[in-house]
Specification:
alpha/beta; Pyrimidine Nucleoside Phosphorylase, Chain A, domain 2; Aldehyde Oxidoreductase, domain 3; 3 domains; 4-stranded mixed β-sheet; 3-stranded antiparallel β-sheet; binds uracil
Amino acid sequence: MNFLSLIEAKRDGHALSPQQLQDFVHALVAQELPEYQIASFLMAVFFRGLDATELPALTLAMRDSGEKLSFPEDPRPLVDKHSSGGVGDKVSLPLVPLLACLGFRVPSISGRALGITGGTLDKLESIPGFTTQLPRQRIIEQVQSLGLAMAGQTERMVPADRILYALRDVTGTVPSLPLITASILSKKLSESLDALVLDVKFGRAAFMQTREEARALAQAMIGLASSCGVNTRALLTDMDTPLGEAAGNWLEVRESVDCLSGHGPQDLRELVVAFAAHLLLQTRRETSLAAALDRASACLDSGLPLQKWEAMLAAQGADMHRYRELLGRDTLADTVVELRAERAGYVARCDARIIGEAIRDFGGGRLNKNTVIRPEVGVDQLAKPGQRLEKGHLIARIHAANKEAGEVMCHRIASAFCLSEATAPGRSPIAEVLMT
Ligand code: URA
């Protein structure tokens, strides 16, 4: 194919035909295209967008670029959730076992960190021995027997997204409505789902900075997924502040275990319970939101999702003895630096972008395709907006690879906070619910 003319057409704002987009995906997966041309195509799409014919054509071509999951007939609906990405966004970790305990099957195929946002796979891989590389048949068998599997795309699932995702991450082309839509839905539509919930984030550390942009992204995804027969809803959620009180791969696993144990931060629990409740409604397991929230909340408190989580870890190779030993430790990092308030006040701002960038730059995320992530790097015990601090109170703990990195990281994390005299009420992270 003449890929250069396709790049030029997109650069000049012309629409590409479904056939051209299918040819592009074929050539991409056949490794016939040099990375510099793919990168330049991505940048053209970033600036020019994709129209209402191009977007489904690209998404479906990506979905069909590899093998799909298909499951035996079973009364348990197949469901999943996906997030557009945030800092401290560990919702999938407690949510997936909760859903399995609510009687769903959850073939959760997720991704790695992208930009400053964390990735579910990177978090899970901070658990010793745990593998996210499961062959397709293993995923199907485990979902049938345990009700859940959390894995990455297999070599052969949606290979087009794997190639584009890695390139977008390092070419500044992540925050694009059509590229995010195609990336998320190509994966989700290959899971044979009955229902899907989307966490579309907006704010300082989200790819969509404003609520309006997030709404447009959510509407595009709901429209496309629903037209493919998947009952889809989206929650628009706040990403000005990190979710929960911890960010960084291992620290987020710990906080997820707290949530599964009935403790942990309120905003995290609220989102986990809300996503489960919406899926209960979407699959007609419940008819009112209040009843669905009660059921999801009671299930989370029953302790069964924690047992399910541990069963999944064991099934996917985790060294349970070492995992429990690590959970008992205060930190896995070489150095912990405490950031303390220099004066009294209310937390008026805790900027998720500054925190996400600091974690990424000090080893908790990727700066290029070859970066090896340090799972122990991150922050915990974050003070959240609305919280009252007296002089000397803890604002955050910084977990760093060494003392020097810890001091510099602490300085950067300090700049994420702003204290004020007046109290600002804490807000629900859920701004809006969108459905078909
Ligand atoms: N998650 C994805 O899988 N893809 C994106 O582009 C953004 C978030």
